[in-house]
Amino acid sequence: MIASGSPMDTKLLDILACPICKGPLKLSADKTELISKGAGLAYPVRDGIPVMLESEARTLTTDERLDK
């Protein structure tokens, strides 16, 4: 069982893709979200598990979309 607050295993980034645009994902600096620039969404990471549901994602701000 994953302890509460455990970070996501970054190896998952090699195999995960955005379920909307099928593009790559980037782990946010604070490691709480997976960012999809292609879809303009940020998927939450809860207890080390990425929640890859569009209904759970938040829309990126204009600044976040432009940030490289």
UniProtKB/TrEMBL annotation:
Classification lineage: Bacteria, Pseudomonadati, Pseudomonadota, Gammaproteobacteria, Pseudomonadales
SUPFAM superfamilies named in the record: Trm112p-like (SSF158997)
> Matching InterPro entries, A to Z?
Trm112-like (IPR005651)
The UniProt entry's GO CC annotations, sorted and at most eight, read: cytosol
Origin, by domain of life?
Bacteria
Q: What is this protein called?
A: UPF0434 protein KPSA3_05235
Family to which the UniProt record says this protein belongs = Belongs to the UPF0434 family.
